[in-house]
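In practice, a research group might receive sequence data for several interacting partners and want a quick structural hypothesis before committing to experiments. The following worked case mirrors that situation: the sequences arrive first, and a predicted assembly follows.
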Amino acid sequence: MQLTVEFGGGLELLCSSVKIHNVNVELPKGVEKLTMKDLLAWICTNLIKERPEMFMKGDSVRPGVLALVNDCDWELTGQLDTTLEEKDVVVFISTLHGG
Amino acid sequence: MDADGGEVSRILRDLESLKASKSQIELQISALEARLQEINLQRPNGVVPDGSCAPPLLSSVDSGYGHDLSPQMIYRYSRHLLLPSFGVQAQSKLLKSSILVVGAGGLGSPALLYLAACGVGRLGIVDHDVVELNNMHRQIIHTEGFIGQPKVRSAAAACRSINSTIQVVEYQEPLRTSNALEIMSKYDIIVDATDNAPSRYMISDCCVVLGKPLVSGAALGFEGQLTVYNYNGGPCYRCLFPTPPPTTACQRCSDSGVLGVVPGIIGCLQALEAIKIATAVGEPLSGRMLLLDSLSARIRIVKIRGRSLQCVACGENTTFSKPQFQEFNYENFTQSPLSPSPLKLNLLQADSRINSKEYKEKIVNGEAHVLIDVRPEHHFKIVSLPNSLNIPLPSLEARLPEISLALKEKEENRGINSDLYVICRRGNDSQRAVQSLHKMGFTSARDIIGGLEAWAHDVDPNFPTY
Ligand SMILES: [Zn+2]
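A structural hypothesis for the assembly, expressed as tokens:
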């Protein structure tokens, strides 16, 4: 499945400072639909290069990270259970505090 | 040479004293303008009629044109009045509105300038900091003459010099749970232009308790974020971020840097959102968040969750109220201070440390040693001590052979054991590095206490700090 995964607000530092990743995610065996939960696991294995605790906590993203599926907060689409479709854009943004 | 040197120091002296008098005069002007404003407020047909502060003048002064704008106001705000969807009605609302800006820094600077210019009736400014030279690249409301003076005073003077007809209120104090309710309750709209997590939670909670809309902006590096909280049934800050992030995720401009224009853009947008709320024109950015990535020139506006029924602050069954707010410990909650000061770790035994003056002695005495600078490479490029070897902390382990080699070279030259010293910017990473070095067999490694900042402070005042 072709997806665009983007990182911002400093999270890109965990993936060699690359913000936009055009990726091809293989569906796990016996699974018909890819969920955000599957994608998070895939990202941890394939994209996160350092300090995974700065991205994940338990099986979800850490506090202070917004996950957006096609420019919509994943709280509105089903969080970990959100099912992804071909060409979806998934963005992870760390909240900023500076000013 | 000598004659030139004499002239330079004379010019520098003159400049210094002229700048001092200039800021003195600006303060006097600011005070006089504030006084004039007070007098005018007490007179129904003052020289400078305006719509500032309570009780609102607008209802009592009728210009005879079917609205309450004086001829001067019509002229001053004419370009607003010419906007069909804004016009007299929105401008009148603006003149009657009151907006509090918390933080007169990178975000607050442009926000305040535009809010003053557009005719917000009463503009409050909260800040406890003083203007510093390293603020100037982004905190554009301040001028060089105000370096060393309170930001609130400087910002208020700038606002008054742009628009003497509005009321500007100065709060030269840190915002705390003890004063936030009283200060914020006097304003219709709150603008969060602060720079740390506990302040953001505190301001949001206070807005919830008082029922005030909050225009929240943030900027760091090349990125910015903007949204409106607690407005028209929309979410509050805690709905979005019920649990504070780990402190290691809270980067600050003083550590990570920020391109000056980025908070400038977000601060302008904060002014815009505050104006939209004050005038009821347009659609405020509630339930949506604007994400600016300035390097790729992309602005993304995303839909965010609505008010959370489970929210501790604004949820359905919450008992959060004024007393709870006043007792809430935001520093404990976020594990970070409301007025961030540089971290000062103390990880090492005294015999593994050396202060910058002692290190200077070693250089003067020509003692053989190796100095490792563990700052990131781009820091090292700003300034470094002579003969120091840059090995950024994350790559320390991988580059141990370089350290061994450097030590061996010194020893071959001198025939004696060389010391190993580690330095960084403020003396925290150097301690972490020494801890690792000890573990990896370099048991004589010592850190230079307080880093390059201490060096600049105690040994070489001409050494650049940043
Ligand atoms: Zn809430």
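Before designing any experiment, note the following. Confidence is low (pLDDT under 50) at residues 44-60 of chain B. Chain B touches chain A through 46 residues (CB under 8 Å).
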